From TrEMBL, chain A:
<feature type="transmembrane region" description="Helical">
    <location>
        <begin position="83"/>
        <end position="101"/>
    </location>
</feature>
<feature type="domain" description="ABC transmembrane type-1">
    <location>
        <begin position="18"/>
        <end position="205"/>
    </location>
</feature>
<keyword id="KW-1003">Cell membrane</keyword>
<keyword id="KW-0813">Transport</keyword>
<dbReference type="InterPro" id="IPR035906">
    <property type="entry name" value="MetI-like_sf"/>
</dbReference>
<comment type="similarity">
    <text>Belongs to the binding-protein-dependent transport system permease family. HisMQ subfamily.</text>
</comment>
<dbReference type="GO" id="GO:0043190">
    <property type="term" value="C:ATP-binding cassette (ABC) transporter complex"/>
</dbReference>
<keyword id="KW-0472">Membrane</keyword>
<feature type="transmembrane region" description="Helical">
    <location>
        <begin position="53"/>
        <end position="71"/>
    </location>
</feature>
Automatic annotation (TrEMBL), chain B:
<dbReference type="InterPro" id="IPR003593">
    <property type="entry name" value="AAA+_ATPase"/>
</dbReference>
<dbReference type="InterPro" id="IPR030679">
    <property type="entry name" value="ABC_ATPase_HisP-typ"/>
</dbReference>
<dbReference type="GO" id="GO:0016887">
    <property type="term" value="F:ATP hydrolysis activity"/>
</dbReference>
<dbReference type="InterPro" id="IPR003439">
    <property type="entry name" value="ABC_transporter-like_ATP-bd"/>
</dbReference>
<dbReference type="GO" id="GO:0005524">
    <property type="term" value="F:ATP binding"/>
</dbReference>
<dbReference type="GO" id="GO:0015424">
    <property type="term" value="F:ABC-type amino acid transporter activity"/>
</dbReference>
<comment type="similarity">
    <text>Belongs to the ABC transporter superfamily.</text>
</comment>
<keyword id="KW-0029">Amino-acid transport</keyword>
<keyword id="KW-1003">Cell membrane</keyword>
Length: 216, 240
């Protein structure tokens, strides 16, 4: 008979960690999507003028997230900012997600057929109306799978915030492992929780995509 | 009235239009024929300012199209254009496709725009497809929707850029019928077309484009039946 010393308090502790993971993901994707939409539109419409922006975003995509966390955390202390670790985590993850989201949005906007845009303009729609009523809805459908991918990837990347002292799902499971010395079981449970969160996100996404596909 | 005067248009080093002059009077149907690369489609894009020109002038009802001070969005409201690739808005239903511009550009209420859209769609024979998405329609139906979409803006002019060229042969007829109906209603139209017999039937005048110039222009009988130039005759022989 298999015995374990894991308690219901431990499970609750894991779930609390999972909640932190979800919150971090939500904030990161909220910031990242907002930033990504703005930067992506700028990059798609003014590719030359926004080249410096591309370089900056490239830096955020290229430097490992862990280094970004540690650097920003130190920078925060040097600059005397009174931010909580959670705010730092959201900011860094948000910028990181925005850097990726920019490219997703840019590719979506560029994938909208110029002929369809031309048809819109020929009806008298101005630049912004064309953007709002034709480009954005079409680009959203094109970019959505990539965006969903980013969400899932950011959710797993949130595990890195443990390095700046936040207890999220992975850190919570490590703490329990240290105490009860049953890494296999605890990590399996943590993995299942990650899997379950991903499943819900992916399902919701699929439903939305299916609704769009019915129209095509 | 559309007045085109000595228009030159180039894409980089490539001169597409090399000094075209053409006047289209109110209520007139003018067909433009010619080989590919003769600049006929490009000219249509220049008429409503979708393409810029390098030299010359185009005036629509006296308004200079290629003048920085001209409000192109306003001007385009009275110039409908139908493209070879019908360019439906795939995320909107047929009804919404037609209602979009009247609502957003003309500021019509939903009810007003819907009434106009339903009338135009009925006119082109799509009354039973209002709630359908364009992806579910045939090419001919999508093209008729595109015509209704342009007509919903109550334009004074309609430009057709090879409106039937991308259609399966059996779908060409339904689109031509719709265009014929418009011509009979007295719409001022400029057609770029390869449908010579249709051009002959509906046009008041036919222009043959060659190498970015109007090579020959006249009544359908003059140009299509007894052309003056050998190049026109050769072209007609090649497409008939």
């Amino acid at each position: 008979m298999l015995t374990t010393s894991i308690t219901s308090t431990d499970l609750l502790f894991l779930l609390q960690g999972a909640w932190t993971t979800i919150l971090l993901t939500l904030w990161a994707m909220l910031l990242g999507t907002a930033g990504g939409v703005i930067c992506g539109l700028l990059r798609a419409t003014l590719p030359r003028a926004t080249l410096p922006l591309a370089w900056v975003l490239d830096a955020f995509r290229s430097v490992p997230l862990l280094i970004q966390f540690v650097l920003f955390n130190s920078l925060k202390s040097i600059a005397g900012l009174d931010w909580s670790a959670f705010s730092v985590a959201c900011a860094v993850l948000g910028v990181y997600a925005a850097a990726y989201c920019t490219e997703i949005v840019r590719s979506g906007v560029l994938a909208v057929s110029p002929n369809v845009r031309r048809a819109g303009r020929s009806l008298g729609l101005n630049y912004w109306q064309d953007l709002r009523y034709i480009v954005m809805p079409m680009a959203t459908r094109i970019a959505f799978p990539g965006w969903l991918n980013l969400t899932l990837s950011v959710m797993k990347d949130t595990a890195l915030v443990m390095w700046i002292g936040i207890v999220e799902l992975l850190r919570a499971s490590q703490i329990i492992v240290t105490r009860i010395q049953e890494p296999l079981l605890v990590l399996c449970i943590a993995g299942l929780i990650y899997y379950f969160i991903s499943l819900v996100v992916a399902r919701l996404g699929n439903q939305l995509e299916k609704r769009w596909q019915e129209n095509d | 009235m559309i007045e085109i005067e000595n228009v030159h248009k180039s894409f980089g080093d490539l001169d597409v239009i090399k000094g075209v002059s053409l006047t289209v009077n109110k209520g007139e149907v003018v067909s433009i024929i010619g080989g590919s690369g003769s600049g006929k489609s490009t000219l249509l894009m220049c008429i409503n300012g979708l393409e810029v020109i390098q030299q010359g002038s185009i005036r629509v009802d006296g308004t200079e199209v290629h003048n920085k001070a001209t409000d192109l969005n306003r001007l385009r409201q009275k110039i409908g254009i139908v493209f070879q690739q019908w360019n439906a808005f795939p995320h909107l239903t047929v009804l919404e496709n037609v209602m979009l511009a009247p609502r957003k550009v003309l500021g019509q209420s939903r009810a007003e725009a819907e009434e106009v859209a339903v009338r135009q769609l009925t006119h082109v024979g799509l009354a039973d497809k209002l709630k359908v998405f364009p992806g579910k329609l045939s090419g001919g139906q999508q093209q008729r929707m595109a015509i209704a979409r342009a007509l919903a803006m109550s334009p004074d002019y309609m430009l057709f850029d090879e409106a039937t060229s991308a259609l399966d042969p059996q779908l060409v007829g339904e689109v031509l019928d719709t265009m014929r109906m418009l011509a009979e209603d007295g719409m001022t139209m400029v057609l770029v077309t390869h449908e010579i017999s249709f051009a002959r039937e509906v046009s008041d005048r036919v222009a043959f484009f060659r190498n970015g110039l109007v090579h020959e222009i006249g009544t359908p009988e003059q140009v299509l039946v007894s052309p003056q130039y050998a190049e026109t005759a050769d072209f007609l022989k090649s497409v008939l």
